[in-house]
Amino acid sequence: MLDKINQIRQETAGFTPGSPALLEDFRLKYLSKKGLLNELFDEFKTIGNEQKREVGKSLNELKNELNELFEAGKRSLEGAEQASGMDLSLPGDPVAMGSRHPISLVLNEICDIFTRLGFTIADGPEVEDDWHVFSALNFPPDHPARDMQDTFFIEKNPDIVLRTHTSSVQVRVMEKTPPPIRMIMPGRVFRNEAISARSHCIFHQVEGLYIAPKVSFADLKQTLLAFAREMFGEHTEIRLRPSYFPFTEPSAEMDVSCSCGGKGCNLCKYTGWLEVLGCGMVDPNVLKNCNIDPEEYSGFAFGMGVERIALLKYQIKDIRMYFENDVRFLRQFTQAL
């Protein structure tokens, strides 16, 4: 037993805990009910009377030494805690929860609304060729959108560009999917525009496409009215104003009634209406370009800027805030999860 006592003395000589966990390990190994010290006291009961005096004295000394090492370790850790101003008995700091970006929130909400209306989601490449971005969509060769002032060109002859709209995904869907087609195309697009409070060279769109026999403009209007009331409130009204797009005929811009109730405010510039998207019936030439018979099928398409919808929904005044990664701005949307 004396050898075992001396071995424990050697193991614990100069023990200094570097952390509460190490101090607890020391206690469990040597001082707990199942520790080595208790095992030695149990073994002490079995030795002969002639050894008990010497062994008992050494065992009691070891007990006192181990207890002193443990108490000294506690004092050392408490002193370090006080010096650092930390209370190690307190629970740890909670992990801060982030929030979704407002663009993600609005994009997800738009997709959810159209999914409930029976649309599925399609995706496509951001770097595209001229056919899918322009030619298949009835853009004439001299259309201004092909100019360098609007489009980022990656290569010339053949033209490879950063897509200026997600209509390119509509073309890819029509080329590969036989009607009926009912899909939305969310994604990031690029235009060579000056960055200001109202415009940016990068933004996000959600476009929609519905092609089937006997699709009418009335179907388009009812679909967009259902979307507007889901997005902006059940009392929202819409109006469709004649417009022009190369890939739809007839074409329209859609406005939604302002939250001011038509009284006029800075947001709607005192008109009572806010422009949110463009739409129209798919031009027969576009259907022909995608190998769909315009005599058998008709369809409508629409497209909206997600940043524009978010500006209206959250009353944000500067589009640049979406891209500046200012956590003070992003924290405002924690409750919107």
CATH names the topology of the largest domain as BirA Bifunctional Protein, domain 2
The CATH class designation of the largest domain is: Alpha Beta
Number of helices: 11
Strand line-up of the largest beta sheet: 1-5-6-10-9-8-7
Q: What kind of sheet is the major sheet?
A: 7 strands, mixed
Our count of domains comes out at: 2
The succession of helices and strands, N to C, reads: HHHHHEEHEEHEEHEEEHEHH
Instruction: Give the tally of β-strands.
Output: 10
The dominant shape is elongated
Please report which band the strand proportion falls in: under 5%, 5-15%, 15-25%, 25-35%, 35-45% or over 45%. Answer: 15-25%
Q: What would you give as the CATH superfamily of the largest domain?
A: Bira Bifunctional Protein, Domain 2
What is the second-level CATH architecture of the largest domain? 2-Layer Sandwich
Low-confidence segments: none
Radius of gyration: 37 Å
Q: How would you describe this protein?
A:
This protein is α+β, with helices and mostly antiparallel strands. The protein folds into 2 domains: 83 residues; 235 residues, 2-Layer Sandwich (BirA Bifunctional Protein, domain 2), CATH 3.30.930. 39% of the residues lie in helices and 20% in strands. It contains 11 helices and 10 strands. The chain has a 7-stranded mixed sheet with strand order 1-5-6-10-9-8-7, with helices on both faces. It has a 3-stranded antiparallel sheet with strand order 2-4-3. A hairpin with a 4-residue loop joins β3 and β4. α1 packs parallel to α4, α2 packs antiparallel against α4 and α5 crosses α10. The longest helix has 36 residues. The protein is elongated, with a radius of gyration of 37 Å.
